[in-house]
Amino acid sequence: MPSHKNIKTVEEIKERLKNNRVLLITDYTKLNVADFTTLRKELKKNNNIIKVYKNRLVKIALKEQFNNVEVDNYLKGVSAFIFSNDEVNTAKIIYEFSKKNENLKTKAILIDGKVYDKKMVDTLAKIPSKEELYTEIVSSVNAPLSTLVYIFDNLFTTLLFSLETIKNQKEDR
Questions:
Q1: Given this model, what pLDDT does residue 171 score?
Q2: For 18-52, what is each residue's pLDDT tens digit?
Q3: What averages of pLDDT result for each successive group of 10 residues across the chain (173 residues)?
Q4: Does CATH number 3.30.70.1730 belong to domain 4-125?
Q5: How many CB atoms lie within 10 A of CB 20?
Q6: I need a surface site. Which of 39, 74, 98, 161 has the fewest CB within 10 A?
Q7: Three state DSSP letters for the chain
Q8: What is d(CA 136, CA 8) in angstroms, rounded to the nearest whole number?
Q9: CA 146 to CA 128: how far, in whole Å?
Q10: What is the rounded distance in angstroms from the CA atom of residue 121 to the CA atom of residue 46?
Q11: TM spans, by residue (predicted)?
C-alpha cells in the first residue's frame, strides 16, 4: 500500500508534467551543493524548475500521464528532474553548465511525452534561441530596406541637384 506522502508526490509530479511540455532527466551524483544551487538559480531565472524525486515515483507518474512512455533505462541512479516549457532554452542551460561542470550528466529529455536521449539535448542546445532568430529576421528585413532608403536618398539628391542646375541655367538666360 503506497503511503500518503508518495501518493501526494506522484500527484505533484503529474501536475508538473501537465503544466510543462519538457522534462529533462539528469544525473547529479558528483555535483556539490554550491554547484547544484548555481544550476537551480540559473534554471529558475529562465522559468525552469529542478526537483529531486525518487525515480520510482517519477516512473509511476510518467506511466499514468503518458501511458506507453519507456523511461526505465534513464531512471537509474541519482536523478534530478527539470520541468520546462522551452526545450531549446533548457537544453542550452544544461549544455553550457555541463561544459563547465562535468559532474552534471544528461540522461534523457521528454518533449510532449516522447523520450529522446542525450544527443537530442546537445542538438537542441545548438539551435538559435527565439530572440536570436528574431534578430536575424529583423536584420534580414532591415538590410534591403536600408539599401532602398539609401537608393531613394541618392535619387532625390540627384533629382534636386538636377532641378537646381536647370533652374540656374534658366535664370542665366
A1: 78
A2: 999 999 999 998 889 999 999 999 999 989 999 99
A3: 86 92 92 91 92 92 84 89 92 91 90 89 84 79 71 74 78 74
A4: yes
A5: 18
A6: 161
A7: CCCHHHHHHHHHHHHHHHHCCEEEEEECCCCCHHHHHHHHHHHHHCCCEEECCCHHHHHHHHHHHHCCCCCHHHCCCCCEEEEECCHHHHHHHHHHHHHHCCCCEEEEEEECCEEEEHHHHHHHHCCCCHHHHHHHHHHHHHHHHHHHHHHHHHHHHHHHHHHHHHHHHHHHC
A8: 46
A9: 25
A10: 17
A11: none
Cell numbers placing 77: 541512479
Are the CB atoms for 104 and 97 separated by under 8 Å?
yes
Q: Which residues pair with 106 in a beta bridge?
A: 26
